[in-house]
Amino acid sequence: MTKTKLNSGYVDCACRDCVEIAITSGGPALCWECEEAGCSAEGTDECLRSDAYGQDEGPESDELIQEINSLLAQAVWVAS
Ligand SMILES: [Zn+2]
Ligand SMILES: [Zn+2]
Fold first, then answer.
1. Which ligand is nearest to the CA of 17?
2. Domain contains 1
C-alpha cells in the first residue's frame, strides 16, 4: 500500500449551523470562531456564535431605522 490517505486538512465546520471551513487533524473540527464560542463539535446544538447567520439583522433593524427617521424628522421640525 503506497497510497496514504491523510485525514487532515480543510473540512466543513462540525458545528450544525456553521458554514465556515475548519482545519482538522482527523475527525470533526470546529472553525476558530466556533471554538471561541464553545459550539458543539457533534453538530447537535445550534451555533453559539453571536454573529451566526447575521441573526442580529431583521425586523429590529427596520424598526430602528424608522425610529431614527422619525427622530430626524422631529429634529428638522424643531430646527425650522
Ligand atoms: Zn464554525
Ligand atoms: Zn458554531
1. 2
2. no
CA 76 to ligand 1 centroid distance, Å = 46
Prediction pTM value: 0.53
Residues 14 and 45 in one domain: yes
Residue 2 belongs to some domain of the structure: no
Cα of 11 vs centre of ligand 1, distance in Å, is 10
Residues 42 and 64 in one domain: no
Q: What is the mean pLDDT of residues 37-44?
A: 90
> In the numeric block, which cell numbers belong to residue 34?
466556533
User: Ligand 2 centre from 47 Cα, in Å?
Assistant: 4
| C-alpha span between 29 and 67 (Å, rounded) | 43
CA of 4 to the centre of ligand 1 (A): 28
Q: What are the DSSP E strand ranges found in the chain?
A: 9-12, 21-24
